[in-house]
Amino acid sequence: MRWKWLTFWGMAGIAMLLASFWVPWFDVDFTWFKVNVGWFAVTYSGLLVIRNLQLRSHLMMTPRELYDYGERLSGVTPEILDMAEEGLRPREIAEKLEGRYGLPPLISLKYMIALSKHSHNGSKVDFPSEGSKEVEEQHPDGPTQ
Fold first, then answer.
1. Are residue 65 and residue 53 in the same domain, yes or no?
2. For 20-38, what is the mean pLDDT?
């Protein structure tokens, strides 16, 4: 996830707001009111928090997806790990898996996120960062059909 940008914009916004007590460098005058640019940075940081939390909750494999694609995914796991060790980005790996095995890219990406989380618990595999890297906890999305 892009926590670095969230932290940067949050800290920059807070610094701008604190600096406004001494100097009006970050104030923008809209003729009928003034606003500090720091408020925009803090708001943007807050929106990034919401985005990151939503991504984390939506990028988990559901029990239905595991049922539908589990066998194919477990069969291609060694190939996924080999491509990750070669330094391919997760999106490129997902495109190759779609072409070779017909796996939907979203399913492949969710599986790679789960593999990455598993690798942080003791294995040696680590995917190149492209956004979200981890999933906190697996939750079912409802009854299977």
1. no
2. 90
Phi-psi region of 142 (alpha: psi -120 to 50; beta: other; left: phi over 0): left
Question: 12 pLDDT band (50/70/90 cuts)?
Answer: very high
Contact 72, 117 (CB under 8 A): no
Q: Do 69 and 120 lie in a common domain? A: yes
Contact 106, 68 (CB under 8 A): no
Give the domain range for residue 81.
61-145
CA angle 46, 50, 54 (to 5 degrees): 165
Boundary of a domain, candidates 14, 43, 58: 58
| One domain, residues 46 and 101 | no
What is the structure's pLDDT at 145? 44
Distance CA 36, CA 27 (A): 4
